[in-house]
Specification:
single chain; 59% helix; binds zinc ion; 414 residues; alpha/beta
């Protein structure tokens, strides 16, 4: 299975990346040949030939779930591919060789994948990355830095990165990912080759769930439709009972907002569910992380061991990071609930307009039809606007409960 198989429904983008990987491979081969033949100039000139599809900085954009990070990872793997088939005219990115495999599982020495649970990426971390990027690749191919959340760079961090992107080391490649091109500083994006991913078609998502995750076709189709082409969410929905329960609760909300009491109660429940999500993530990660740091700092094993003098700062830093991650998880989870609600009302609108497209939420078809029958398309549009306004308020850091209450009250019948 070639590395591109993980990039779902993006044929145009993968064709461009495959061409770039082929040209990148030619650069490596030409330089190696040049060294051997000691005819440096001629071959090096060939390597730098015009019209090459390869460049040092790339920007992958696309809506959440379109798989921009997966595309960047696949490209990184293709750049590191050492399959012998390449000599026989095969394209780099076989998916099997050591270069591809270690990149995909995240252990390749020359591939740094940066993803953050935090709301922002600061100057200090970015400096470390830039230093890392300036190293020559240990494996002799490319030094690849994948920045999965380039939209979260602070302005200061962006300026640090800018210098590195402007004058990259000869074998360094930056792969930046962000939801949209507007999310990245103009100075940086103007120096990147931009690839725009689309929301993958429902059928392509369902297909990959069946093929790669072994999910049965019917469940895969349902999950792909419910999440409207968001690959990770579709997989989670198809495999995680808790995710299904939470989604079911969200989809009942429109039927419960009949009076003010119901509205306020529903708002509180949405907030609580998001808090539960954050707690679950914290339970899975925090304790292990804390224990690892304690061990690294030289504390005795187990929770009772005292920390050596002068290491409290590092522990405090970790606790702060965990707190920020909890906030972020809570927000993301709330945002997912709001995405589900938007999809619900979009289905209502489709019914009201007599559209014949398949509904995203046909498992709650009765509720959809009830609300469609009791209201007008204008009312539904105003409800969709209320959900969007709530997402925007959360984005601006309005207190979550206030924002959600304002929304549920606006969703009320009548
Ligand atoms: Zn390979």
């Amino acid at each position: 299975m070639a590395v591109w198989d993980d990039v779902v429904g993006q044929e145009r983008v993968t064709a461009q990346l495959a061409a770039a990987a082929r040209d990148a491979d030619a650069v490596v081969a030409a330089e190696a040949a040049a060294r051997e033949a000691a005819a440096g100039e001629v071959a090096a000139a060939a390597a730098e030939r015009t019209g090459s599809q390869m460049t040092h900085a790339w920007l992958f954009t696309g809506p959440p779930g379109s798989g921009r990070a997966a595309a960047a990872r696949a490209f990184a793997a293709a750049l590191q591919c050492v399959s012998p088939d390449r000599a026989l005219g095969g394209a780099p990115g076989c998916g099997f060789c050591d270069g591809c495999h270690t990149t995909l599982i995240g252990t390749h020495a020359d591939v740094e994948i940066v993803r953050t649970d935090l709301l922002s990426i600061g100057v200090k971390e970015t400096r470390d990355l830039v230093r890392r990027a300036s190293l020559s690749p240990a494996g002799g191919r490319w030094q690849v830095i994948v920045l999965e959340d380039a939209d979260r760079l602070t302005e200061g961090a962006g300026n640090v990165l800018l210098k590195a992107v402007e004058e990259p080391a000869p074998r360094t490649v930056w792969l930046l990912c962000a939801p949209s091109i507007e999310d990245v500083l103009p100075t940086i994006r103007s120096r990147c080759r931009h690839l725009s991913l689309r929301t993958p078609p429902v059928a392509a998502v369902a297909d990959v769930l069946v093929r790669r995750d072994g999910i049965d076709p019917e469940a895969a189709d349902r999950a792909a439709r419910a999440t409207q082409g968001h690959i990770d969410r579709a997989r989670r929905l198809a495999t995680d009972e808790r995710a299904r329960a939470r989604r079911a609760a969200v989809l009942k909300l429109p039927l419960r907002v009949d009076d003010i009491v119901g509205c306020l109660k529903a708002a509180q429940e949405l907030i609580d569910a998001a808090g539960e999500d954050a707690k679950q993530v914290a339970e899975e990660i925090d304790a292990k992380e804390t224990e690892e740091l304690r061990a690294a700092l030289g504390a005795a094993a187990g929770t009772g061991g005292r920390l050596p003098r002068g290491t409290a700062g590092a522990m405090k830093e970790l606790q702060d990071k965990q707190k920020r991650r909890a906030t972020r998880t809570q927000r993301d989870s709330l945002d997912l609930a709001l995405v589900d609600l938007t999809a619900f009302y979009r289905d209502v609108l489709a019914l009201q307009m007599g559209a014949t497209v398949p509904l995203a939420n046909d498992e709650v078809g009765d509720g959809l039809r009830r609300i469609a029958g009791n209201s007008t398309p204008e009312r539904t549009l105003r409800r969709i606007e209320a959900v969007i306004a709530c997402r925007e308020a959360l984005e601006r850091n309005v207190a979550p409960l206030l924002a959600v209450e304002a929304m549920t009250v606006a969703l009320r019948a009548g």
